[in-house]
UniProtKB/TrEMBL annotation:
Name of the featured protein: Glycosyl transferase
Top-rank taxon, per record: Bacteria
Alphabetically ordered keywords of this record: Transferase
InterPro entries noted in UniProt: Nucleotide-diphossugar_trans (IPR029044)
GO molecular function, one term: transferase activity
Amino acid sequence: MSDFHQNGNITTLHNLRARSANDLEHELSVFAESRKISLILPCLYSELEGEAMPHILSQLSKVSYLHRIIIGLDAADQAQFRHAKRFFEGLNQNHIVIWNDSPRMRALGARLQAMGLGPIEQGKGKNVWASIGYLIGCADSAVMAIHDCDILTYDKEMLARLVYPVANPNFSYQVAKGYYPRIGGGNLNGRVTRLLVSPLLIALKRVIGDRDYIEYLRSFRYPLSGEFAMRTAILPDLRMPSDWGLEIGVLSEAWRNLAPKAVCQVDISDAYDHKHQTLSSDEANAGLNRMSTDICKAIFRKLAADGTVFTPNVFRTLKATYYRCALDILEAHYNDAKMNGLSIDRHTEERSIELFAENIMRAGQVFLENPHETPFIPTWNRVHSADPAFISDMRVAAKADEEEFV
């Protein structure tokens, strides 16, 4: 059974096993009569060919309280888009597949680039941002949820628990972040959260002192989860990172725009497993190597924006402090896994820590050389100000793609 611990920074909503999923879903259906709930699924075409997505669809088809599902499809050609449309026909809800690589969408991207507002790079951040723009244009939903499309252990109760805190009109939460244990295949997973983010935040506190932002991030049990829900009123002013810092970036935006009492985290699963990224130690722009660097940069940028002064000496000290903290935390996770009959490859884990320590320095160097780097996609309010017809034109383009490629 889950605990009921609260640390006072943000609210943690636990699963105390005292209420059935059916009861929760029934109440959501009541809320949805006056507060429509939409789901965004950012996916690669390759995920349609995996084992997770068919099961996710079978679960979603049973969800009665969803008003709309928006599927943002990346890395697909015309034939694959046609297949994706057939693939998602099993959904019982109003849904649309947005072909992000269509000629119409590329033309809209060029239009943004001409105004200096185009996303810097392709990826999940751009996909989520575009899907949010489409949802804003629909102007009919009060709640938005997002989750990944590679969840091997997916159950529709995950979605119900994720959206409940922001769908309930009697709650004041604007953002809900999902958390869960990362276990699967007899292993304790979640290396980047366990071995990078947690010890890095401890090391930052020791090196630069107490910061409210650090304590805020440390409050999240799984800050890198791809599952979160929001009330749609905050979406037009949300700045989305275009790199691997998406999840940290969204939490940072919630910190910038909202009071801590408007943010919560919610226990959505007892066991969560999905596709695992490779370490890619020899490729700086791939796998966990790239991810860890982008996450570090996202944290450093936010701290600098709040007044923290970084120097080469600070980053050198931070690297050494992180390394010691990470080894200590590895020992704790090893013992936790052992007690629960799970495995941890200590050699691989220590190799990961060594890589992450180097990437703290690399991220610090990139930050110092280019402190004004802003890998954020412009907010939809800014896009609308520069081109009031853009959101409407994007909806028209998505609809035209749907109708043309039947």
